[in-house]
Amino acid sequence: MKAIAVSEFKGTPTLMDLPKPAIRPGTVLIKVQAAGMNPFDWKMTDGIMNNGKTPHQFPLIMGVDGAGVIEEVGEGVTRFKKGDLVYGQFIHMPIGEGSYAEYAIVPEKSGLTIAPMRIQPEEAAAVPTSGMTALQMVEKLKLQKGDAVLINGATGGVGSFATQIAAAKGLKVIATVGDEDDAKRMHRLGAAVTINYKKAPLADQVKAKFPHGVDGLLDLIGNKEKFEQNLDLVKEGGGALTTQFVADDEVLKAKKLHGGNFETEGSPAALDQLSRLIDQGQIKVPVENKIRLEDAPAAIAASREGKATGKTVIVM
Length: 316
Description:
- With 316 residues, this protein is of the alpha/beta class.
- Helices cover 28% and strands 29% of the residues.
- It contains ten helices and 17 strands.
- Strand 1 and strand 2 form a beta hairpin.
- Helix 3 crosses helix 4.
- GO terms for molecular function: NADPH binding; oxidoreductase activity, acting on NAD(P)H.
């Protein structure tokens, strides 16, 4: 089968011919239809999970998010059957049996579930990591209907989902954008207010529009300095979360805010919740770029250099 893999940590992602995975007890073999790309995928090949305890195998096939059809079920599998359309996070031990391949083997008990009915596999593959991160972040803020939430980095994968989920919950979303096209897209996704951070400092613009502050902050791109500056925009008792692991608990405590560094907890239950929102039409899946497997190395390089725009999906 064709797959994108590396031969060693920090190796160059390459299109390889590798053996089709053999079914094992407790696993399913998926004929992959699409794989969603995330920066975490190349961070894994750089060894972000190489802590001496997590097993890896080489060639290491990249990819966490995927969607496809179950071709075979292993002994003891009860949740799925041959022919089921599934999506989710394919990541499991050993690291290296990922979704950037024509076939993938995934344990039944991993973050896998039946795919939403009203979208195509290439859209479903874009959902798992970004969608679950957005869903859990919005829920963790514990805001009430009518509250205002500032999403810094709203135009990315997580931000696009978070904007829609927050709007569906009745929150007033303030989305950061870089141009007029982004502003139009974010308004279509449910943002009540857009702020072009290129026109003037973000904090100054938010204070002008919300002099009494906002109720919550989701910061998806800010460094430590910017995150702490943005905390000044949040009302006392409000919440602030960052995916960049730059939060200082003592700083939050001093400002009487809850939240901090956020890490996604993938689960079939969270995916099922996203599926319901998608099938109810409350979430549109933003896929900006669809590429072939052989195009993935160039797309990975662009992501590393910070030149990737929008959500990219590999279509098999």
